[in-house]
Amino acid sequence: MLEHEEERAMKMVLEDGIVKTKKIMEGNQEVNFTIEEYQRFHQCVFDLHSASYRNNSHWLLERFVKSLEESINSVVLPSFVDKHDALLLRELILMWSNYKMMTKWLCKFFESIDRHFVPNICYCSLNDISNNNFHDLVFKEFYVKFQDVAISLINQERMGLHIDCSSLKNVFLLFMEMHKHTGIAYYEGFESVLLEETSNYYCQMAQQWLSLGSPADYVQKVYQCLEQEAERAERYMLSGTPPKLLKVVKQQLVYEILDKLVEKQRPENCGLVTDFYQEMLSKCANMTLQEGSSWTTEEWLSALLTSSLETGVGFLVAAGVHKLFILVPDLAMHRIGGMSTCWETKKDKKANKETAFIKNGSKLLEKLVDICDGKCNSLRSFSATELKKATNNYDPQKILTRDSGYKLYKGFLQGRPVSVKKFKDDMEQYEYCFNDIVYASKMSVHKSFMKLLGCCLEAQIPILVFEYVGDRTLSDFLWGSEEACCQPLLWIPRSKIAVDMANAVAFLHVAFAKPIVFRNIKPLNILLDDNHGAKLSDFSISISIPKGESHVRDSVAGATGLIAPEYLTTGNFNEKQDVFNFGVFLLVLLSGQMVVDFSRPEKEILLQDHVKKCIEDDRFNKVIDSTIIAEGTWPGKEQQLQAYTALSLRCISELAEDRPTMVDVSQELRKIYWSAISCRQQ
């Protein structure tokens, strides 16, 4: 059928507006739209959207998206060719600024579909679509390069070169914008790499400075360096980064070098410290020296340690409760198993509690150094007595969930609910417990992990305290009590749980310099709140991939059916182990069936084999939980279920290289979820 002449004319007018907006992308600063032009283009979209003779809404949305892609492919991507260092970052900021200006006008022109059509289709706005396009086609592809350039520029400034600080700050703000639009913590990932690179840089500098000058020269350099790093961090880094950066610098320049500095000073001055040396140490430690002070070098350096920024882990609690600082070796501290701890206990505490407290503190430091270079977020220390009281002496009625190695109790501390995790008393769980503490402590920035509040080191195996999420796990909703089953999980809540968990696992893979493989994604480890908000827990068997390595080797750990073929046969694995595990989890969530079920035919005991057989025999409905089928159908639901199943099967591909990344999985699940929301509302 021939297009209506009036409709064709309106589309031509709209094309003129789109062509003019592209000139903004090309850097033409003089492009502007008069009120008359704006009204004309806006009216064209409105008329096309509301025309009675043809529904142009889908065409308008496709044209909007296509105009974005055309600008990115023809202007943005070519602009990055042959750009390096600061020039690349400047080009990125310029392109992003032009892109936002262009999309601002496009969104104004297409306002009618943005208000009346797009929310029903995509569960988002045209602005969201614009930002996601820039992310998918530009930012995601070049992120690692942008990150490397930023760190290179920071190192250049450390060496005395002048850099473009404003471009750096704008890039960091862009990282945060992309986080806001996609849920992927890009700035946190950059920050993690920056801290690791900073640690390596100052480790080398410390050795060099110490070998070339006197201790007094060294301390002066440290003081100057700390001032410069503080000023640098405040100029272009985002809030939250400066204290972390200074902590890393002090770790390498002061704490790690302490013994060598004392040894070097001893032959020069066995008694008093020189006035100059005292002055510099005073500045570093931010203390006021008393006239006539006669402290030795060792005493001054110890004071420097205890008065400067905290390092390692500090458990800071209210008066009357233990205070534990786990630090690197210090002459004034007690040596325990090659580690150093400084502890205070009440006089009436029993010796076995003191012994456990010291042993566990030493073990925690060992794990911190091994897994995350001694860095950790602040945690609270709880006493065994208060946790016993909080859980009513670990009342079995208070158990939220349990696994082979632990029980999770609901408790109350200061009137607020918490989750208290108590491990079984054996050596295997002892190792798992510290793994859980260290990894969980790094996850406080992400909403889809159960937040660790602190732990009790007095018990033989530390007891962990987490935020309270809810009374039930996903396992309870799928296979649990009648009360839980009376609140059936429908398709949309299930797809939302899948999105939340995919975001969480993707965060583990991309936000850290050493990617974390979770290895234990299953319904029992996912707690749900009253609105079906999901949080992942239990890092007992998680492991980091060493920096610079593509795989890690470890003994096989994890539940039957969740272990990827390459891991099972060789012991070597990487992030694709989690992708396989997640694919099986998606099938569990879809089907409501157990991973292993001996009531199924012998060749279908594993859920993935059962699903493949059902699809092969054209019995797709047998794969889907009866609850999802019972809620009825609506336009698009069948396609969503098929796309979800296809994605699950890609995740469990035999070959690791055939599996998608968790970032890709997260994005595909988000599209399925939005589609389910919009179709259900129609």
TrEMBL record:
InterPro entries: Cullin_N (IPR001373), Cullin_repeat-like_dom_sf (IPR016159), Kinase-like_dom_sf (IPR011009), Prot_kinase_dom (IPR000719), WAK-like (IPR045274). Belongs to the cullin family. Pfam families: Cullin (PF00888), Pkinase (PF00069). Coiled coil: none annotated. It comes from the Eukaryota. Residues 394-673 form the Protein kinase domain. PROSITE patterns: PROTEIN_KINASE_DOM (PS50011). GO terms for biological process: cell surface receptor signaling pathway; ubiquitin-dependent protein catabolic process. Keywords: ATP-binding, Nucleotide-binding. GO terms for cellular component: plasma membrane. GO terms for molecular function: ATP binding; protein serine/threonine kinase activity; ubiquitin protein ligase binding. The keyword Nucleus does not apply. This is Protein kinase domain-containing protein. The keyword Nucleotide-binding applies.
